[in-house]
Design brief:
Number of helices of chain A: 0
Number of strands of chain A: 11
Distance between the termini of chain A: 36 Å
Helix content of chain A: under 10%
Structural class of chain B: mainly beta
Order of helices and strands of chain B: EEEEEEEEEEEE
Number of strands of chain B: 12
Structural class of chain A: mainly beta
Oligomer: heterodimer
Distance between the termini of chain B: 41 Å
Low-confidence stretches of chain B: none
């Protein structure tokens, strides 16, 4: 039973390019969450999704960031026109229905570097 | 709103010494509490969690934590650390009743020296 799969593990983008981060939840998990870890900081909640629905995006920056979790395929976190301040580790977690935060399993993260 | 304060950003200890990593939280509602460990360039691994019941929680790798409601604390302890325990440790909180989000502290870097 594979865990939460994130790819790529490392991503380098030039300023102004787009970054796409992928997350495949654990088998049987229907809820996906994205968190961002800036240098020397803890993780900060960004967005919570279920299949084809964004449930809570209160932690997402208002511009350039978007997330989706389509009926088929992984969840995608998309950052348009990246800037140096977007350099961070982005973690995805998944959870079974009804368990919320106490059912989380985290992926290994994608480390985004903007040059 | 909830917040988590990890009182020490860095904790150096010698191998086989005991260690305590401190965590205090603030919340207007009842909470669940968690400790996660992050090894260099890795994801987060759950060490232990407090949901209800006994206030002393045992986790993996010999770690334990004690929930103290009156002091709003959830300190992590290990009686004898190993070099392999060198990592960053994060305390986190979520609201009881099905909250979907975790609120994290800024982390404590534990360095175990030979």
């Amino acid at each position: 039973n594979a865990g939460v799969m994130q790819n790529p593990r490392h991503l380098v983008r030039r300023r102004g390019q787009e970054a796409r981060l992928r997350c495949s939840p654990m088998k049987g998990h229907s809820h996906v969450y994205w968190y961002r870890q800036l240098p020397e900081e803890g993780l900060k909640f960004m967005v919570y999704l279920q299949k084809e629905n964004i449930i809570d995006e209160s932690g997402m920056p208002k511009e350039r960031f978007s997330a989706e979790f389509p009926k088929e395929g992984p969840s995608i976190l998309r950052i348009q026109q990246v800037v140096r301040g977007d350099s961070a580790a982005y973690f995805c977690a998944s959870s079974p229905l009804g368990q919320g935060a106490y059912g989380y399993t985290f992926g290994s993260g994608t480390r985004l570097t903007v040059v | 709103a909830q917040s988590v304060t990890q009182l020490d950003s860095q904790v150096p200890v010698f191998e086989e010494a005991p260690v305590e990593l401190r965590c205090n939280y603030s919340s207007s509602v009842s909470v669940y509490l968690f400790w996660y460990v992050q090894y260099p360039n890795q994801g987060l691994q759950l060490l232990l969690k407090y949901l209800s019941g006994s206030t002393l929680v045992k986790g993996i790798n010999g770690f334990e934590a004690e929930f103290n409601k009156s002091q709003t604390s959830f300190h992590l302890r290990k009686p004898s650390v190993h070099i392999s325990d060198t990592a960053e440790y994060f305390c986190a909180v979520s609201s009881q009743g099905g909250s979907e989000k975790l609120v994290f502290g800024k982390g404590t870097k534990l360095t175990v020296n030979p």
